[in-house]
Structure formats: C-alpha cells, structure tokens
UniProtKB/TrEMBL annotation:
Signal peptide: 1-24
Protein name stated in the entry: PsiF repeat-containing protein
UniProt keyword list: Signal
Length: 92
C-alpha cells in the first residue's frame, strides 16, 4: 500500500472512531428525589427574595423615596415570601 493511501485509511479510521464516540449516548442524569426538587425550589426562592431586597437597597441609594422603593419591593416579592416585604422586617 502506498504511504499516501495508508495515511488516508488511517485518517478515515480515526474520523470514524471520533464520529462514533461523538454520537454515543450520554449517560442518563441521576434521578432527583422530591426532597432535592424542594431544596432547589427553596434555593431559587431565597435568591429571588435576596434580589428583590438588593434592588430595594439600590432604589433607596438612588435617592427615591422609601414609599416608592417599598412599593416596588412589594411588587417584586408578590408570591415569594410572607407579608408585604418578603417576610423581612426591621425597625423604621
């Protein structure tokens, strides 16, 4: 066999192996339990509440009135936490 033909045969074989491994089925993701799903949902809720409060702090820093910022906080927190302010209370 000529060296150039051998090169192309080897290259074709390598390409075939690479293609086969690329199309191989990925391993199945592990099944999540209801407890894991609840934990992920709780984490997402905490992050959403934290973002709402961070946005409220930025609103106050921008010079807007407390009433305006609390109104936006109420909207952002709707359905997330208990009470009008995502369940957080502090004195003032």
């Amino acid at each position: 066999m000529k060296p150039l033909n051998l090169f192309f045969c080897v290259a074709a074989a390598c390409a075939a192996v690479a293609a086969a491994s690329a199309f191989a089925q990925a391993p199945a993701a592990p099944k999540t339990s209801p407890k894991d799903a609840h934990k992920a949902e709780t984490i997402a809720q905490h992050r959403a509440m934290a973002k709402a409060h961070e946005d409220a702090a930025k609103c106050l820093e921008s010079g807007k009135s407390e009433e305006q910022c609390h109104e936006q906080l109420r909207k952002d927190c709707k359905g997330l936490g208990i009470g009008r302010f995502c369940g957080l209370r502090h004195s003032h």
